[in-house]
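Board notes (copied after class):
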Amino acid sequence: MALLLLITVGLSAGWFASIAGRTDAPRDILRQMGLGLIASLIAGLLMNSGTVMGGLSLIALAVAIAASAVILVAYHAIFQRTAEI
């Protein structure tokens, strides 16, 4: 159950980031969803005692959401800077 929740959180975070960043290219939207997914899974795995096949603690869920947000904000900051050059 935890694995499904972390996948949903990561993909949703990436999708919301693409909406907030007004991304139009499908490749960029998928890249952001992938970044959110990877960040969510890694943070959730680390904070949930190394397992995602059982339950998910609220702390692990909060850290997964925060990690996805931080990674996506950093991605947008770097991408915006390189697009302006």
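Comment from the instructor: Residues 58-84 form the longest helix (27 residues). The helical segments are 2-20, 26-47, 58-84.
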